[in-house]
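=== RUN LOG ===
request id: a7f3
mode: sequence -> structure
chains: 1
length: 319
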Amino acid sequence: MERTVASTTPTETTPDPRASSDGDPAALRPDGELDHLLVISGLSGAGKSQAGKVFEDLGYTVVDNLPPALLEDFLALRREDRDRYRRSALVLDIRAGDPAPAIERAAAAVDGDRPLFEVIFLEAGDEDLVNRFSETRHRHPLEARSGVEASIAEERRRLARTRELADHVVDTSGLSIGQLKDRLWSLVPHSATKNELRVDIVTFGYKYGLPLEAYLVFDVRFLTNPYWDPELKRLSGKETKVRDFVLQQPTANRFLELVTELLTLTAPAYRAEGKDQLRIALGCTGGFHRSIALAEELAERLGELPDVDVTVFHRELER
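=== RESULT ===
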């Protein structure tokens, strides 16, 4: 069982790694690590900078606004130092010109290596984009005397080919930062084999909104909140003192027993039905104490089940 823990905190499902001719995941190395080269593109103001931060938190080397002329140099560097750049994300957008030719060159260049190569395109409605530029007072990279709306329309036109090349198109209209993080995280490939059920445990705060992709949501606000203890208020559920405070409550242990029993029962049935992923969300008020403590313990218990790969993602931890 392999467990991945991301220390922070998106309508898409994560595709299986592309298979090689013998049926093994092409991007899965013998040591179990995944190769993943990701391109983030999209409209200005749609959330590309936030996306870069999400993937940095997930252990990616992120290069923002890479000039297309330097793409081949980066790919050569990646081949020379694969351990360091195994999981990389490149932000290519209109600031450096039309990214479509660079994306096509990248796809062709890595085909022989067969890493997992994907493109995420972020977009939003015109009203949302105009409001974001107004709130941040940033200037649209194409803005001229014609104004922001005309610049957005021109950018859509220029990025049409890039959007066609994308594996995932994510509309960020109306999404909070937490919801955007959750949606993007759901697109990240994991190293579970095709015979395993991948259980993704997401923690969140109800005051920041529900995770969009969760199959099962558990409200853990029935437990006493460490927030009201001055000594524990600023400590997260990953800290021993907070974890002990939460797990020493009898109802917490019984809750974990029942959830583990439920998943012990249903995991084989999910696999028999051809499902390879189950997303579970645990929520408390702020997503900082109770949900994190319970998720860490639940992951340890589920990790003992056969053919289950567990990933934990704390959406609000760095908030």
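=== NOTES ===
Strands lie at 4-6, 36-42, 61-64, 87-91, 116-123, 168-171, 197-205, 216-219, 277-284, 308-314.
The longest strand covers residues 197-205.
=== END ===
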